[in-house]
Specification:
Length: about 250
Amino acid sequence: MFFRQKKSGNRVYLQIVENRWEDGRSKQRVIATLGRLDQLRQTGQLEGLLRSGAKFCESILLLAAHRRGETTAMRTRPIGPAMIFERLWKETGCQEVISRLLQGRKFEIDEKKIERESRYDGKWVLRTNTDLSAADVALKYKQLWMVEHVFRSTKSLLETRPIWHKCDETIRGHVFCSFLALVLRKELDDRLAAQGHKLEWEDVIRDLLNLQYAEVQQDGKRFLLRSEAQGTCGKVFAASGVALPPTVQQIEAP
């Protein structure tokens, strides 16, 4: 069921309409005409009706409470890139290729080396021939990302990023991963083009990152709240054949 505006002369009426399947066709039936839309708004009846109906919808109440800051936020995480590129990863055959290449191989983590290296966590050393203070040197160094961003943006898609590896195996691995990333991007570009969309890559990545889950707690229950799909997000999901997750999901507490 849904609300529908019905125009009659110079007046607009608000109706509740039901969709039903009959004789192989979708038909609509008016359940009730609530009255003139302008009068419902002026008298506050429409707002009261919606507020009354919201009492029976836990998701609406939860979203409203979250906007008012009445829920306990646990954590947030982006979900857009993982959902899109996981689908492309499987459908392009990348996952199958990697699985085949890794057959019979074993990997392990050097825990002792991690422990030794942890002594330097959070520490970094800068050497300069300027007269700047230590704070200014650190600030200038951190601002280098803006310059590096410009360089990266001007590179061709077929070029790889700077390679700092020394061993042949790690260099090949870097180039291989860069190629896989290019495959996924090309696949997404092709799917968007097939839908008639030509989108800027930075806009796509930004909008996918902005699609997030917020894990919240209310009344002893935990929920995942999905943020609104913004900008290019809807087009990217549709072109990739991925459905947006529900706005509200209840999850089990750990």
